[in-house]
Please model this.
Amino acid sequence: MQTVIPKTSAALTSLLRADFKTQWRNRRSVVLLLLVPVIILISWKGLIAKLGGAFALSTCITIGLTAIGLMGYSNVIARDRDKGVFQRLRVTPVPTWSIMVSRLIVQLLMILLVTTFVFVVGNEYDKVTLAPAGYALTYLTAFVGGALYLGLGQMIVGLVKNAEQYYRMMYRSDVSSWNLRDLHMMETLVALDGHLSLPNKKAKIVVWEHNSHLGDASATDMGRRGEWNVGQLTRQRYKDEAILIGFTTYTGTVTAAADWGGAAERKQVRRALPGSYESLFHEVGLERFLLLMSAGSDVSKVLQAPLLERAIGVIYRPETERQSHYFQASLSRQFDAVIHIDETSAVEPLERTVKWEEGEV
Model:
């Protein structure tokens, strides 16, 4: 099976979105970066007449660049290096330069924000103004100088050696937190393979996860959103040695929560929507069957056309099932084989709660 690697533009967009969210959520850092040069500018009020407004502004902006490039940026990189974040790049299906470019863009925009903030405070508090050409030259200088400071901050922690040393922040946006989680899973799989395999005998490993983790994400809506998963990364690394097997069901019961952190409940699985793979398999009339979809086979060609597919994991919300649990997928590109069980039964927890016993059944 051929795995579709995310487009560089899509990956970079996803990284930028995640970097911006991470920066915004770290409000204390943003406030500190803005306050340091402004406090100095205000404290120099009595010296502005002697030093000149342009000199005072440029000095405060330079201090802001130093704070971002040498203190903030290099500290963040050093922290992520100590956490072992860099090794994730071994299984990242995007160009490593895009990770660095994303981070640099966000930091350069922060530099422009600091520069603008200093201009505004200087004008409002100290009545310091520049000619239009002076503002333009200062912005240009801040931008170029900021890039140099960021590069210096990068070299301080000794990271510019090769592509594997570029890093990935622990993003918290939906797409990137998903990607980071599956990269962790893939790292574990690669480590297990290295530990269990012998020089003359490769290890055989079975990974049991939900379809959304094990099916090739590039064959689904996930790939179009910039997401990847264990199935896609496994195919990319192990080629034809990897066999991806999915499970489908038409109806039955499932053990799941209504929300993250919620109690496990026994929920009734609604009948699959018409136009979905699950509904199509139900029409076959068999209680259960195994479907092999080898490349080039008639079955593979028929099931390559995108249809709806249902994903039920830790969370199941029947009331919003269409929006929450269905997505478009090309089944024969997503899996090498599928096991269909027309009516499934919920996994029974070792310690049953009253809520699980009552359930929705």
About this structure: The first strand starts at residue 245 and ends at 256. The chain has a mean pLDDT of 79.
